């Protein structure tokens, strides 16, 4: 199957946005998020930040965009595979005519954003692209107020091109943090090149094209550094200071609702 991010890149410049959203909704046909009302309620009326995005999932089976008061976005570079060209300022268009502030900053270093600024943080299919997840999560937590909601979505490898790869252990993630692993890290690249199922990732091209893109990951951030399951996700969130309120697993994703611990 196509990864959502790659499908989005291919079609977003060809179709009007409402049509684009319709096509991307196909990923979520016959799926539902158990207790989705709790996720929506946790962010209702709040001011939030989305790391990565905007994300179709937050318009469809988890319709939080419709419930929030305001939403800003952050992405790592002025040009990305997923969003094309972006700029700082009131340019983060997340729902129809609704626009928030677009930050351009690495997920592990949000120094342009003050602490305790946001009521909630969203992240969908982003953390797997980060080489040092604990460092990123600590930054995301820092910009949230105490008790603020955190909605984290990560891909379920059973349905994507990572299905041959081993699940990353919590101990490995902890070691990445202790070693201060940077985002140019290519520790996993040989594993990825060996086990990435290109038959489920046609936009990645040939084996050689995929290898070249992977070796240039610092600029494009397309690699999945880590492969998660729910057990690892929950250990990770508890370690960095989040309390989990609700979880659900679908064919394509893991969904977690948590809050920033006092």
Task: List descriptors.
10 strands, 262 residues, 9 helices, 24% strand, eight-stranded mixed beta sheet
Structure, described:
The strands form two sheets. This protein has an eight-stranded mixed sheet, sandwiched between helices. A two-stranded antiparallel sheet has the order 3-4. The protein has helices spanning 4-11, 17-25, 36-43, 133-142, 170-178, 189-195, 207-215, 217-220, 230-240; strands spanning 47-51, 70-75, 79-80, 84-85, 89-95, 98-104, 118-124, 144-155, 242-249, 253-260. It is an alpha/beta fold and 262 residues long. 29% of the residues lie in helices and 24% in strands.
Summarize the structure.
With 262 residues, the chain is α/β, with parallel strands linked by helices. The protein has helices spanning 4-11, 17-25, 36-43, 133-142, 170-178, 189-195, 207-215, 217-220, 230-240, and strands at 47-51, 70-75, 79-80, 84-85, 89-95, 98-104, 118-124, 144-155, 242-249, 253-260. Strands 5-6-2-1-7-8-10-9 form an 8-stranded mixed beta sheet, sandwiched between helices. A two-stranded antiparallel sheet has the order 3-4.
- Along the chain, the helix and strand elements come as HHHEEEEEEEHEHHHHHEE
Briefly note the structural class of the backbone.
alpha/beta
The biggest sheet amounts to: 8 strands, mixed
The total strand number stands at 10
Shape: globular
Low-pLDDT runs = 1-20
What's the average pLDDT? Answer: 91
Number of helices: 9
Strand order of the largest sheet: 5-6-2-1-7-8-10-9
User: How much of the polypeptide forms β-strand, as a percent range?
Assistant: 15-25%
Classify the helix fraction into a percent range. Answer: 25-40%
C-alpha end-to-end distance: 41 Å
Give me the Rg, rounded.
Answer: 17 Å
